[in-house]
What does this fold into?
Amino acid sequence: MTSLLNTINSPLQLRELDRKQLLQLAQELRAFLVSSVAKTGGHLASNLGVVELTIALHYVFNTPDDRLVWDVGHQTYPHKILTGRRDKMENLRKPQGIAGFPRRCESEYDTFGTGHSSTSISAALGMAVAAQKAGIERRAVAIIGDGAMTAGMAFEALNNAGDMDANLLVVLNDNDMSISNNVGALNNYLAKLLSSSFYGTVKKSGKKVLSAVPPMMEFAKRAEEHVKGMVTPGTLFEEFGFNYIGPIDGHDLDTLIDTLRNIKQLSGPQFLHIVTKKGKGFEPAEDNPNKFHGVGKFDPLSGRAIVGIVADIQVKKTYTQVFGEWLVDMAALDERLIGITPAMCDGSGLNAFAEKYPQRYFDVGIAEQHALTFAAGMACDGLKPVVAIYSTFLQRAYDQLIHDVALQNLPVLLAIDRAGLVGADGPTHAGSFDLSFLRCIPNIVIMAPSDENECRQMLYTGFQYNGVAAVRYPRGTGTGMPVEQKMQAIKIGEAEIKQLSTVTDKTQKIAILSFGSMLTACMEAGTQLNATVVNMRFVKPIDQNMLEKLLNDHTLIVTVEENCVMGGAGSAVMEALQTIQNHSKLSPKPSVRTLCLGLPDYFIEHGVHETMLADCGLNAEGIVKAIHQIF
It folds into this structure.
């Protein structure tokens, strides 16, 4: 029963509540979260941990005029529920439903769209400066987790903000229990004191008096820092130029509201450190917050996952599992192998490797740029680093990939997970661009496996290659192809014909070139059209010998990829065909019609992966239809 929650359709109604009612609201909101996410799946533990914080922020600040900027955004379900989207939660992450992350087009309360980590302080600072330039008394609040604080971008923003007098509040939501013993009555009292107007007035007056005597000013500053440092871990943030307050209990509504109200009266950059518990209030999530970070449908009473009826008795492996197993096997064969991940151990399949080879496993935190240059340094001195990274997060390390890895032609293997569309996580997490932004880089080999076994063999191929190599594979299960334990390198740049057209008239002969996981759909389309189907395997280098053969006895060449068409694998084929035709010695030169199929030139909304592919024309029916339209 959510009688109080049902009356809240905007923060304005929330602010009309008596403070004594807020505890009941928090209990109802937490219960609603569990029951709602149990039906839809999504992020749970992180959202349960910010229930009180979300209520306090909307209760104290005049949202949406005051700006709340949520980092990453996977903890914004309470925010969505309190800002008029409670009834839409039943369609969370579903086609045409609300997104699992903040989106500016979805609500005026979503002040900044996000899905990647560590952007909130920069964005909120920009908003604070904009308000300052416009002469508007408006607050900007960045809510960032301790995990997101591992990224360099967060510290770049802190460094910049500390030199300004903009009204920015950074709330550090710390759910790592390493400092939990610092949270208690004393710290809560100190937080209220340090954020009070009395303390701020005394501090400002003291600065004015002591500024005439610089040595005394410096002494007073150091004395304050050391006194704070004895009871709080905030000296670092003070050095950045912030007024540090905390840590306080992030589940104590009274302390949160009093502290936030005090901070609201202060000017300049403020830093509030709160400590919360992931999964708060739901025992299964409290006991295993990693498991309940992102979940499918589950029983809200027991927390057990609800498994649908599986029609196929054979359990297919995911590409992530194939990578994880290969990594362990390869590590046993080569002691130079090092596994690196930017905070995605579980998602990238490194758990078994981390357990078996802890001295060769490095989780560098949410620091993709560092991960690539860290790997480059290892490769310089004889190690063989394997960087396991999502396609969407590799975008954040593009300069390091070019400047630190590829330019020096270092033997670094990129295991690129979540390539292509990713279903419910939507456009922020889709790997739509990696083939395009990778293939223009010199000194790199790019592979795209069509099934699980090919993925294993390509990983081995890339590891053996004495240079930069990338293997990109999709989210989820493969085709069910048995994975051979024996590892054998594939000849670099060699494609393979999977089906040969029996059409005798060259003018009616079609060749479909498949890249990666598109092979199954291409084979189905090829059977319907009696077309030649080629598993290209390599995006770079392209198999020019294969293209020459196809060019001589086919009149239509179709490329299919789960990557944006612009600059992707199809573009690589077109460029290669142009080169072949320009250098052909035949007279007249062979001519061929071409068609490139892939992801369209717009961001694709969240949904069901198979449906999304069909909507893009990347299933067998769509491929056949596209070919019939021009041929």
User: Anything to note?
Assistant: The two ends are 60 Å apart (CA to CA).
